[in-house]
Amino acid sequence: MKQLELLYEGNGKALYRTDDPERIIVRYKDTATAFNNIKKATIENKGILNNAISTILFRELERAGVKTHYIETLNERDQLCRRVEIIPLEVIVRNVIAGSMAQRLGIEEGTKPSNVIYDLCYKRDDLGDPLINDHHAVALGAATYEELAQIYAMAQKINTVLLDLFGRMRINLIDFKVEFGRTSDGEIVLADEVSPDTCRLWDRDTNEKLDKDRFRRDLGHVREAYGEILSRLKKVVNE
User: Fold this and answer.
1) Could you give the angle at which helices 46-63 and 222-237 cross, rounded to 10 degrees?
2) Among 11, 16, 42, which residue's Cα sits nearest to residue 27?
3) For 200, which of 1, 158, 174, 209 could close a Cys bridge (C-beta 3.0–4.6 Å)?
């Protein structure tokens, strides 16, 4: 598989075209950003850790029946993935109230609701990725009601798989963000990444944060926290 020109460069990844029009190379970077790119830094080997973590999680999700864009891991930074048209929506799945929801609604962080909460955001950096509802998404042409139903069903399945997996690692999956894409034949698949950049992960015994909040909140030891996630993940998948 030959890497060709850069297609797109985001905060944490760069996408490259290949000599197969249906496949791209996703390169994980060491860049860390927060608050709509207001806060930026480089964290040594973060891309390597996120690539390794996402590799394991994509494989576990595929094994559980969740279709993803992932094909294979090429090296410590690169994945070969199916080329998709990204649906301009972020689905945030909340098992515990934290972060922006806690601030927005004045709820104490760490409060566990009686239900799983699904938030929908419109992917527009210039607008700050605003919170929207299903009717907005349809009106914007981002997805149909039928596609939204499929996306929510996939998000629910992803949550079930990840709750079990992280539970075996003695980690509470507080919330996570997922993105989806359409393949050339119209199939909706999980895209982007699943990593401590996109999940809130708290140690079950100590409540220590092992995710991007360590960067957002200046807690330090970001690389070490990501390394801890990878270490525990390898142990449970190799049981």
Assistant:
1) 30
2) 16
3) 174
